[in-house]
Amino acid sequence: MDIILLQNVDKVGSKHTVVTVKDGYARNFLIPNGLAVIANKSNMKQLDSLRAKEDAIEAEARAKAEIIANQLATAVLKIGAKVGETGKIFGSVTNVQIAKAIADAHNIDVERKYIELEDEVKTIGVYHATVTLHKDVVTKVEFEVVEE
Length: 148
Hints:
This protein is an alpha+beta fold. It is 36% helix and 33% strand. It folds into 2 domains: 60 residues, Ribosomal protein L9, N-terminal domain (Ribosomal Protein L9, domain 1, 3-Layer(aba) Sandwich); 84 residues, Ribosomal Protein L9, domain 2 (Roll). The strands form 3 sheets. It has a 4-stranded mixed sheet with strand order 4-9-8-6. A 3-stranded antiparallel sheet has the order 2-1-3, with helices on one face. The termini are far apart.
């Protein structure tokens, strides 16, 4: 039976794809649980219009992410940390602090889970972090750890 998936289903397919599954699996599990609909003409037309809307939303989100990426790529963030006599900082700089510095400097909210540090930051200096703003837009952010 051909069905249109309304959500991602493990080992079956991803959202808004047409897949062929066994009749019983479709009738007894996928359709009653709202995970799929039968792939008939009217549902296929709805799927086409839905895909067009989602593609437009996706393109807009990507464009916004690219603008933000350009802003972040040219900026150098300053992060203050308490430093000991040897130049080492107490603790380390985390992605939470980088997200806060981005929010303070550029008024852009980036979730901490989308920020990856290349190395542990335990001394004063200039470092780089990778920020994923969209599934297709990834940028590097330069930040400097300074004495507070």
